[in-house]
Design goal:
This protein is 26% helix and 37% strand. It has 4 helices and 12 strands. The longest helix has 25 residues.
Length: 211
């Protein structure tokens, strides 16, 4: 299966996660987000769903989220240290490398991830980033980093009818962090990091001037 076919299936998966109301168990609530989880059908771990309303137009929220080199994401997202373009496949599909810092007081060492990424717009005005792990000849495993693997994941920005300055943000993470991490560390890491993700996203959107 080529990169394009693979990532279009991811977009279908994210839409099915978005539609499925049952089976999710809430594991964290904050002012910014509700985080839920369920067992993944992709790997022996969990898929996590974040649901939150961000104060800002969909354009401003997407400006903070869009997966591009030198974009705003590396500035505000504490879990993204570097984002590199490896290959532009089409206008909307690329292969990228993401570098993450150490986490959980150093228990989780720096990671890198190689993903095919699709940006997709929908008729209801929603826009999404969709990603999953791939191999790429330009980026074999790197010294100093544990290679992790993202399974179908991404973010969806959904306009809210009658509320032009608010955006629903749905996020889905299902990541094999690689290495020999205790399951308890992984299970504790994702809900707290997703709550931080929404809090930092809201601050970043607020700091943007009107687009």
């Amino acid at each position: 299966m080529d990169y394009e076919d693979k990532v279009r299936l991811v977009a279908d998966s994210l839409m099915s996660y978005r539609r499925e109301e049952t089976g999710w168990k809430v594991c964290k609530k904050s002012n910014d987000v509700i985080v839920s989880w369920r067992s993944s059908s992709e790997f022996p771990g969990n898929v996590y769903k974040g649901e939150g309303i961000v104060s800002g137009s969909p354009e401003k929220v997407w400006e903070c989220l869009k997966p591009v080199p030198n974009g705003l994401r590396v500035k505000w997202d504490s879990n993204v240290k570097k984002f590199e373009l490896l290959e532009q496949i089409t206008k909307d599909i690329s292969v990228c490398r993401t570098v993450t810092p150490s986490a959980a007081l150093g228990i989780i060492a720096p990671r890198d991830f190689v993903d095919v990424v699709l940006v997709k717009q929908y008729e209801d005005g929603a826009i999404s980033s969709n990603a999953t792990n791939v191999t790429h000849p330009a980026c074999p495993p790197q010294p100093g980093y544990v290679r992790g693997f993202n399974h179908p994941c991404g973010c969806i920005c959904v306009p809210i009818s009658g509320e032009p300055n608010k955006t629903q943000v749905l996020s889905f993470f299902q990541t094999d962090l690689g290495g020999l991490l205790p399951r308890s560390v992984v299970d504790a890491f994702f809900p707290s990091s997703m709550a931080e993700f929404y809090s930092n996203l809201a601050k970043s959107v607020k700091s943007l001037r009107d687009l």
